[in-house]
Design brief:
By secondary structure, the protein is mostly beta strands. The protein has a domain at about 15-75. Helices cover about 0% and strands about 25% of the residues. The strands form three sheets. It has a two-stranded antiparallel ribbon. It starts with 13 loop residues before the first strand and ends in a 16-residue tail after the last strand.
């Protein structure tokens, strides 16, 4: 992941809605965090595409600033058409 600590501002991050800015008034273990302002739906937020860094069949463990952890198995499936992304399961 690029800039996983958010210490380099918004570098590597994009938003599915609203505007991303680098904030210094709230941080977890560093001096910066991401602020995603102006979202119009709860599902919109900061994200990164890490597909190229994952290996099919391996499992990865991820965490965020909270105490929760998630183990994510990776399965790559061919896209049914160039215009349609696979449905998440």
């Amino acid at each position: 992941m690029t800039n996983g600590t958010m210490e380099d501002g918004t570098t590597g991050w994009t938003s599915s809605g609203g505007t991303l800015t680098s904030a210094t008034n709230v941080a977890h273990g560093g001096s910066r965090s991401l602020l995603n302002a102006g979202r119009t739906s709860a599902w919109q937020g900061p994200h990164q595409n890490v597909t190229a860094r994952l290996t099919n069949g391996k499992s990865y463990t991820t965490s965020s600033g909270s105490a929760r952890r998630a183990k994510l198995p990776v399965r790559r499936r061919p896209c049914p058409s160039p215009r349609t992304a696979p449905t998440p399961q």
